[in-house]
Design brief:
Largest sheet: 5 strands, mixed
Number of helices: 9
Strand content: 5-15%
Number of domains: 2
CATH class of the largest domain: Alpha Beta
Structural class: alpha/beta
Strand order of the largest sheet: 4-6-3-5-7
Length: about 220
């Protein structure tokens, strides 16, 4: 991260003994010292307006748009109309889970050999951050937190989409949309759909008001 000008690290549910022992990072101790901890991926990316999952499609069929690694930089620069970008890596053993990926807008594919798709986490981060830095704005002109500033109508943050998704889920339950055993699958599909829609702030307020009204009609509060 320090090599390519990035400084905001969030670690999700780390193995506590190893995390507490992590004291040194040559030339990048500040990144480690100021790293944030999050208990869930949803919490970690809640302020991100564009979340990019990383991995390979060798053993899975992506449910969101798949972008080759060498197209990541210009795509992010073109699509990001203000806000913060989150680049997400999974454990080395199995990568990001299907549940993890449902919080991502796009999937970045690292072109590995099919016989060995798994990469060392540090190497995967270095490869992706190099591509981002080399193919987008020059490092010297980019803010240290890798956030693109100023936008008249920035896209929604991931946390806002989760609020909307939770409300729609309540409406679905109140309307008897699906049996109990389908609730998890419906929440997963809803997360993916909301991220595909790329709603802006005005859309968000309108849709939120609509579903709140529907929920009130379906289940009016007690007097």
């Amino acid at each position: 991260m320090a090599n390519f000008g990035f400084g905001h690290l969030t670690v999700v549910a780390p193995y506590e003994p190893h995390w507490q022992e992590a004291k040194s990072a040559v030339g990048a101790s500040e990144i480690l010292q100021h790293a944030k901890l999050a208990s869930t991926l949803a919490e970690a990316v809640q302020d991100c307006t564009l979340v990019l999952g990383t991995g390979t499609s060798t053993h899975r069929k992506p449910e969101q748009p798949l972008v080759p690694l060498n197209e990541m930089g210009p795509l992010v620069t073109a699509q990001q109309n203000g806000g913060r970008i989150g680049l997400v890596f999974g454990p080395e053993k199995h990568g990001l889970t299907r549940e993890d990926l449902s919080y991502c807008h796009l999937l970045i594919e690292i072109p590995t050999d099919p016989l060995q798709p798994s990469m060392n986490l540090g190497q995967a981060a270095a490869v992706c951050l190099y591509e981002f830095a080399a193919r987008s704005e020059p490092i010297a002109s980019r803010p240290s937190n890798a956030t693109i500033q100023s936008a008249e109508n920035p896209p929604l943050a991931s946390g806002q989409l989760d609020v909307l998704g939770g409300l729609i889920g309540e409406v679905m339950a109140a309307a008897g949309y699906s049996p109990k055993n389908m609730e998890d699958a419906n929440r997963h599909d809803l997360r993916l759909m909301l991220r595909r829609l790329r709603l802006n702030a005005a859309d968000y307020r309108r849709v939120l008001g609509l579903f709140r009204r529907i929920l009130w009609r379906l289940a009016p509060p007690p007097p």
